[in-house]
Amino acid sequence: MAVRVEDDTSFAVVVSREEGAWEVGVLPERLVDDLDGLIAALRQQASDIGSIAFVDVADEFFVALRLRGGEVRILLSDVTAAVAWDLAREVVERLDLDVPGEDDLDDVWPAGDLSIFADLGLDEMELGAVLADGEAYADEMLTAIAERLGFGDAFQRAVDAAIG
To answer: Which end of the chain is more exposed for a tag (fewer CB within 10 A), N or C?
Structure first.
């Protein structure tokens, strides 16, 4: 049985870049476990690189979304999260993957588009290295991604505002 998010460490932020300047804002808390709502919020955000959303769910896993030219690209940091969390299950279903079984829960692996940020300078290998860090929490992975993409400070300010 999947669960909805009800904790103080989860957050959702939206990232955009206009004329070379990165902007990171906090999304409403209700979007932390609403994939369709996240996509709708991205559709309202104008950006020259496509709008991006980062969602950290209880520091257990994250979802990265990128909307560019009507195309929605999705990355889930841990496909096994679909067993326990509604948002992860929605992502797995959207990606047309099977939810892992009980025997598959020992290994953590990402699902979705590992080249989601390649055009911004974060290729699949480097992103894969971030995701392979078994000691890192979801927020630490997202921070590493934000820093590599060039908006680490703005990301941290938004996270601090979101989780207070």
So the answer is: N
